[in-house]
Each structure stands twice: as structure tokens, then as C-alpha cells.
Specification:
heterodimer; A: about 150 residues; mainly beta; B: alpha+beta; five-stranded mixed beta sheet; five-stranded antiparallel beta sheet; about 40% helix; autocatalytic cleavage (chain A); LexA-like (chain A)
Chain lengths: ~150, ~425
Amino acid sequence: MDRYEHADLPAQGWVSLVARADGFLRLPLPLAGESVPAGFPSPADEYMERRLDLNEYLVARPEATYFVRVSGDSMLGASIHHGDILVVDRSLAPRPGNVVIAQVDGEFTVKRLRKTPSGLELAPENPDYAVIPLTEETDFQVWGVVLHVVHKV
Amino acid sequence: MTRQYALIDCNNFYASCERAFRPELVGRPVVVLSNNDGCVIARSAEAKELGIEMGTPYFKCRAMLERRGVAVFSSNYALYGDLSARVMQVLTRFCPSVEVYSIDEAFCDLTGVPGGAEAYSRRLRATVLAWTGIPVSVGIGRTKTLAKLANRFAKKQPRSRGVFDLAASPDPDRVLRWTDIGDVWGIGPKHAKRLRAMGVANALQFRELDRDWVQKKMTVTGLHTLLELRGLPCIGFSAGPQDKKTIVSSRSFGHPVTLREDMLEAVSQYTTRAAEKLRRQRSVTSSIMVFLQTNSFRLGQPQYSNALSVPLVVATAHTPTLIRAARAGMERIFRDGYQYKKCGVMLAGLEPEQGRWLNLLALPPAHRPSDEPLMRTVDALNNRWGRDTVSFAASGIKRGWRMKREMRSPGTPRSGTSS
């Protein structure tokens, strides 16, 4: 309903869907009191101490938060797969170590922002891809900071 | 303390929306076409420089647009409505009171903000740009009319860098002299023509006219414009000339509303009003935005505000369809545990009812053309016997959320224009 598709994707680009951050029905679900050790839900956990609303958990500032679908596999090491949805907050100041969505030479890309002795760089988390060094000449801007990945198992 | 109003206006809004997610288009000319007849309805700054006129039919300028490498988009109100809601949200988060005026404009009361209105507006502008990607211009004045005038100056004068405070200007009269009479908020083309014929060509000359003469020739509306130009606020919040691009219907509640059901009734009621206005001007709408807010002046109470735009599959003026969409939107943004002060709806992406392209297959079953007589009949009954003679059950019977002044005896004239 409130989503818009972007059809013509640039090769490195990944924005194929941007949806409003609270564009899902609010559906508070029970949250189990204990964490589950690798997938053996215990019957004792039937006691639910509070309800979890995923929107509230994932989205701090709805007006600055965007859902973005990833294309490509340059960030596998950060558990970001092709087709995943990223929760991106544009109100945060990017810091080294953040996974960011950046505009480089008029194209979107998702990479980790890293600080090296020689300056900043955008680093992929997949050995098949090259690091993008950020120099004075690079046409570069951080579009938003990636906070969460929604991945279908 | 003098009031300080700001008018915040998104630059070339639809074109900016198309650009917000397409960095490759930064610096390139962009135009947006209406979805019914393929006319240019928005132009980026670069497209304006190419001399592309507003309203030009696409078939006439198509070759030229291609030659110049202009990016052309069909209008996408799902996108514009969403970004509009986001911009309004940012403003509501940082300003004590905000009035949504149209899809791309809002008045904010900046009286007494820390650090002064101009510095505050610059931060506000930077925040809107960072969070939404939409560039805005801000005009600040002692009245809404002056804020609107200052906003125009901010937009047209690059040296203001997007923010202009009329009160801080060394020569405010020069700005009024620079403003053409036809560009003054609330002075329509007919009056502008008559005034020009009399030698009143700009806002400054108008301001110096005799007030009784203005009231006689231009009714109380003209008088309000005159007094506002003199710095006397006459147009309260949620009042003033209706914008043409958008229909807004919103109100503050007489007492705080806490119940979801009351909020849904209120939003249905405002939707009914907005739909009546829409049919009166023979238009249909492509999207409906709902918004709500708590009273930010009540310190110590938990604050919450939100806005959500719901795109419509088919542009419509059908009240039940609009009510359904508005209620769905309100269901999503309503949260329990707050004392709400205000809610409202905004219709955007208006098109003339006749000229629209109708895909009969896409029509939802509730919107068969056979409903048109029903809408006409409802409007006729209400015009004849008074408002709400016939109304939609969704908007409630008791209406516990109403404004106090709504509890009036029948037949007394009402104040306020925003219903």
C-alpha cells in the first residue's frame, strides 16, 4: 500500500523498494521472558512478561526511517543478503564502523564506513568486491545509517 | 512578545520527491506530469531555467525534453504523500504548533524559540533536508501574510540561503515593494487586476491604502490582508485562503481525546467535510493524509504526533471510500495512552473530475459510477437543510470529541473557516 518500486536499478545500486517505516500494521506479539538457547523453546516460557511491537523495536524515528531492499551480495559478511530489507535511519550522524547507505558518483551503495590512517573508506564485507577509498575528489555522501537487517531465513 | 510565524514550503516539491531517492538526478532537470492529461505540473529549478512552462502539454514539449535530457515522471502521489507526511512530522517534532496548510506547506509558530527564529529555522531546514531529502524555504514574519511574503523572498533571493526573517531585515519596506500585488497571499487575480489599474502594483502600495476603502471594495478578507501586512495578526491558526493544490480539514478538540473510537469518528467527520469541499470544486483526489497530535504546550505530559498518507487506487470524491482510507490510516498511527489535542486530514493530488482517465476495471466495487447520484443527493440535502442533515455513520452520532463551540444552537453563524 505505501511502498513504491524503483524499477531501473543501477548495477551497484540496491534501492528497489522504499517503504514508509510504519507502513505495517501494528501488531504487538508476546515476547518470551527468557532468550531461547539455539531454538529449543521451553514450555516454561509460556509466561509472557510484556508484548513486543516490532515497529517500536526497530523504528525510533518513523519520519526519518526508511525500509530499503538490498540487491547484490557485497555485504554478506555483515549478514546482509541479496533481497533483505534494511532499516535505515537518516537522522543519525554516521560514524566509522557504521554500515551506511552512501551515494558515490550519483549511485547508491551499501558498505561499512571505515577509518584508516590514510582517511575514510567504504569497505565491502565480501572479498570479491573492492574497497572504495574516499578522497577529496570522490563525489560522496552518506544517505543514511543502517540499523537493522530483516532477513528471511 | 511579538508573534513570529514561519511559513515552511518545500522547493519544487514533486520534482524534489522524485529526486530524493535518485542521486543520479541531482543537478539534472526533472519534470513531473499530471496523470490525467499529461501536462507539466512540477519542474525542478534546472527545468525552469530551460524555460519549460507550468501546464505545458507533454506532447508539445516531449521532443524538447528528450533533446535536453530532462528526466520525466508521471505523478506518484503515494511517494509525494509519504514524503509530505514525513516533512510535517519533522516540523511537528521541533515546533510547538504546526498547521498543515497544503501538501508542501506548513505554518509554524516560532514565537520565543531559543536562539531566535532565524537561527532556529536554519537548523530546522537542515534537519528536514537530512531526514527526508527535501529542500525547504522558510519565511518568517509577524503575521501569516508577512511570513508568506518572506517565504517568497527566501525562495527568489539566493543570498538568503533558504531562510528569510522579514523582521530582521534592514529594510522590510523594500521587500514589500519588491512583492507584486498579485503575489500577496489572499489577493486573487481579479482584485490584483483592479488594483493595478488604480496604480497599486505592489504590497507596499497596498499596505498604505485606506482601511475603510479596502473593506468596502474587498470585504473583510481584503481588510485582513491589509492589517496583516501592517503587522496585526488577523488570520488565526487553521484559517486563511484555501490552497488550490490541497484540501485540509482539521481542528483542535474542545477537550483532550483519548479513545481510539472517538478519534476514528473525528477523522471520519473531517474526511466528510473535505470530501464535500472536493465535490464542490468538482475535483477528485489521489491520496488522503491523516495526522494527529497531542498538546505540546502541556509540559510534563507524554507527547506523540504522527502523520500517514494513504494513496488511493483510483482518484475519487466518494465519501465512503475516503472515510475507509482515512480510518485505516488513523488505525495505524493511533496509540493508546495519550491525550490528543488535534487531528485532521489532507487531500492531495487533486484533479478535475471530468478530465480524469478512468480505468473501470480498477474501480473498487464500492465506487461504481452509480454512487455519484448518492453523493449528489447527500450534498443537496445538506445544502438545503443544513450541515449533517444526512451524514455517514462512521462520523458518529454523539461526537464526544467535538469542539466546545460546536455545541451551538441551530442557525447561529459559525466562526472559523477550516471545517
